[in-house]
Amino acid sequence: MNTRNRHAHGQRWHAALAAAAVGTITLGVGGAAANAAPPAEASAPAPAVVPAATTPDDELGAHPYMGWSSYSMQVYAGNGSKWITADQIIAQSDAMHEKLQSAGYEYINIDAAWNDGVDEYGRPVPSATLYPDGLQAVIDHIHGNGQKVGLYAIPGISPQVYEADLPIYGAPDCSTGDIVKQPIQKADYWGIGYRIDFSNPCAQAYVDSIADMFGEWGIDFLKFDSVTPGSGIGDLSLDARDDVAAWAQALERNGIWFELSWALDIRYADYWAEHAQGWRVDWDVECYCEGVSLTTWQNIARLFPRAADWWRYAGPDRGWNDLDSLNVGNGKMDGLTRDERRTATTLWAVSAAPMYVGNDMTQLDEYGIQLLTNPEVVAVNQAGRPAHPVSTGSQRQTWYAVNPDGSVTVAVFNLGQTDADMKVSFADIGLEGSAKVRDLWAQKKLGTFDGEFVAKDVPIHGTRLFTFTPAEGATVTLNDDDARLSYDGVWSRNGGEESAAASQTLTVSVFDSSQGGSSPGTGSSNVLAINDDDSAIVYHGTWGHSTGRGLGDHDDDVHYSEADGSAFEYSFVGAGIDWVTETHESQGDAEVYLDGVLVDTVSTYLDPSQGRGVQQVVYSARDLPNGSHTIRVVKKSGQFMLLDRLDVVQESLIDVDHVAFDRAAPADATVHVLRDPGELVGVYLDGAALKAGTDYTVEDDTVTFGATYLSALAEGDTALEFRFRGDLRDDVHWTADDGAAVELGFSGTAISVTGPVGPDQGTLEVYLDGELVDTVDVHGDARLTQQPLFSRADLKEGEHTIRLVKASGEVLRVDAMTYTVR
Fold this sequence. Notes:
9-stranded antiparallel β-sheet, 15 helices
């Protein structure tokens, strides 16, 4: 069933439920379909990031929850509200108790349509048809198995309950007719209920009355669906944040886990973390393939960029990024190959995402049980250290997370179309030296390796999962956004304060005027054309590659898709980007996202009378802050969407884009660098570094290429690449507040701090194990990156704490800390 049909299916389901007497309310589980919605893209990361601190194990939300949700089977069975009967739920509870509970699975979550009607106070009443002996009997059975039970709700209040004007339990002066926002507005994506006016204290009393009733029943979990901003709507035309705050307050006093859904807007990540234990980060994992499968590989693959966007916002004292149901327990039902099932499980585990099964647990196969109960994989998930990718610029990705003991959890994912050996560079994951490697899926040691490790024969859509444990004397480098660093005070990430590594091409035109030659012209070197077949462009969904069309395409080729929801994504460093494509009557609309934020919906349709547009710029952003960015374009309508090329506008790093060398009149050539020359890493030809001091010299901001070197170049154009250093991983944390601090606990014998200096920085105080040991001047005449700021190599073996405190200056930027393993 395609996306449009899924949406229609959801509307029909909701309409049928809403027609049932006064009995269907939206607030407090309105019988809405849990997730029937079209794809929704995540938005830009919120700027403020405070990495997680330690949370007591007994605190609600201390670890990602593990369990089961009914919704995948409700969709698969095709009868939605009829599948979640008492017999089915009891059977699932018993199956979990027998097969998964010993591994940590404990939640049995009943999704949409569990209720039928309301009581005299407008509170939901469980369906007598589904639960003839009462829902309480089912709850008691689940609790009797040592498990926890969850229910479902959406924002707002149903029109029927509003119009009935019922008294609110425990609030004698309040009624449901008084708490709807005027003029009436819809509260949820589907338009089932009315928005509640939480400026009226009676509204909170109504939510409290339902949450307290759930507490009396013994409910342990509530999924709250159609939460906006998110759930397909990010423009604040729907805004359920007041509902979220009210429910959070009511549920907290009852000890009930609060899970938000679906595809929440990442711009409000701190708000979700303040009020809930978990939140969905993308649309449904189900394929809506009734009776055929629960999900598809594509629905798994599209979660990788979402996990890459969201990883910083999860942790023990914040909450957890929810990737939806983990449907890997039954090969005949899942819709995934064995390798894909293990890849999905690995992604959930390393993302510290709640691991809840969507399968019929009475039908789990042996391989599925092995996947779901591997103790070392489950331990990675429960450790609560979300991994992040080294890069999302290819289909072969390495994800990692540094653990408190200095070990590194490493997952490699082959999202490509061929088997591959996948190399893990220690430098990419912050290690230097030797490390012991353990295969967590195989539960065996692989040996000690130095500098790199190669995972052999990773299959198509396959994975490997390891722990790298540094050997004595090895070093561990933590970037500023690593979860092990804790920040006190007001800090932000990037926001234009970062300096990204960058490069620019200089074209050297060699000719001989005595032979009639002349210097050929060249184009601007600060606009880089990226053809559609570039390996760094990541395609999601179903795409084809058409070559030799003869229609004037850039490099005579395009990529194309006919499937709504298909997308391409490209990460770049620069100050602007253009999407260049074809326009035609066969094409329609596309959504453009920059850094996760929906910035435009553009049309590539062209009236038939105008024929075909070739190499058309349909979207352009030329005013971005120079740095790292990601563009994502999603097909929304039309028969086709095409990509011809992307033009990346780079920061101008040198003052000219080409120089000429005449063999008949040889002379040195000079270029002036526009970034501080201290940031120049070197000049390269075909990836090989030229010899500084021989091939070229640097004095102040002038780079001079000697005539001897230039005369050895081939006649015609030669491209030389100027490379400039940036902050580690192109990001920093920064604060403007004196007294703001960042702290790291580590076990080692040496510690060093590297970071930027700049004209707007002042001093920072360094504390080791609580004692002030240095005041460091981080002021500089120019903004320079990765400068050595502090080091100590004489620490006693054992546990230590380093704390950096802003003492003066307009701003303090923090980049990296490195310690030596004892």
